[in-house]
Structure formats: C-alpha cells, structure tokens
Write a structure and sequence with these properties.
By secondary structure, the chain is α+β, with helices and mostly antiparallel strands. It folds into two domains: about 100 residues, NE0471 N-terminal domain-like (2-Layer Sandwich); about 55 residues, lambda repressor-like DNA-binding domains (434 Repressor (Amino-terminal Domain)). It is built from seven helices and seven strands. The strands form two sheets. It has a four-stranded antiparallel sheet with strand order 1-2-3-7. A three-stranded antiparallel sheet has the order 4-5-6, with no helix packed on it. Strand 1 and strand 2 form a beta hairpin. The longest helix has 12 residues.
Length: about 170
C-alpha cells in the first residue's frame, strides 16, 4: 500500500509561497496566489486571513505533518458543540496543488558497493568468502533488500573488496 504524502519539513516561507520537503523525497513549492483566487470564488472567508503576510508567515508543521497556522482559529461543530482549532490544510490537497522543484536522491549504498565489487573484478561469492558472510547477503545489500550497519558495511568492503569506506557530508 502506498503511503499518503506528508510534509517532512518546511524549507522556506516567502510571501505566499511555501517550499517543503515531502516524505516522497520531493521538494515541492506551493504558490498560494492561485489558491487565494479559488477560495475567494468559493466564498471561503476563513482562508482570506492568510492573505495577510504577517499571518501567513507564522505557518508551522502540524503533528499530522501538514501546514498549520496556530494563529488562525477555525470554528467547527462536533456533537452539537462548537469548538475551534488551528487552521490546518489537507496534505493530499497541498501535494496536488504544489509544483515539483526536484526529487531528492540519496546515494545507494548497494549500487556503490556493486560498482566497486565489479571494478575489482570480484563475484558476490568472492566478496562473501573473504568477508565471512554469504553470497545471498551480498546480493541483498546490492539490491537494497537488506539494511546494513555502517560497521558491518565497512568490514565487508575492507575484507571483501580491499577498499576503504569514506563518508562525506556536504
């Protein structure tokens, strides 16, 4: 089952545009200009308060991983009782209305490992024998089917391929 898109982090808030990182590994920008027009045509008065930059820029990420304005109260009736809560927008709708900036791609440990193994002219069995593991485990690492601890990965690379692991954060 595919998970629903949720916002992982707000990257930037500028006048009536919000750039976000999603759990889909995408950076997306949401331009509220067109949304303001839609809400105005629909007569949605509660959304009009977001046209004020001082109000808009107070956006936060809610517990349900969507955009929330704690400074804007929305009244609703539940079990015949009127209550209020902060304005929170539907994450799926925000995702649909936003534009993709770029997909965040991480380095695949398995792909890097396979390339290094092949460059060294070694089979999965060769590496497994030298590093004290199994060919099946090496295959699972290369195909991203198995998690691996950094210490174990370092051991397999050094003993199995004869290379060093260097990690760099830029």
């Amino acid at each position: 089952m595919k998970s629903l898109p949720k916002i992982a982090r707000i990257i930037k808030v500028e006048p009536f545009k919000i750039t976000t990182l999603w759990n889909t590994s995408e950076i997306r920008v949401l331009d509220f200009g067109p949304l303001f027009e839609i809400w105005e045509k629909e007569g949605d008065t509660k959304m009009a308060t977001l046209r004020d930059w001082e109000v808009f820029k107070q956006v936060t990420l809610s517990e349900s991983r969507t955009l929330c304005w704690p400074n804007v109260a929305v009244a609703f009736t539940f079990k015949r009782e009127t209550r209020s809560s902060p304005l929170e927008l539907d994450a799926q709708e925000l995702y649909k209305q936003s534009q993709l900036v770029r997909k965040v791609t991480g380095a695949s440990i398995g792909t890097m490992f396979r390339q290094a193994r092949e460059k060294a002219g070694l089979s999965q069995s060769d590496v497994a024998l030298s590093s004290g593991t199994t060919r099946n485990y090496i295959s699972r690492i290369e195909n991203g089917k198995s998690d691996i601890q950094l210490e174990t990965f370092q051991k397999i690379v050094e003993l199995g391929i004869g290379k060093k692991v260097v990690i760099e954060i830029r």
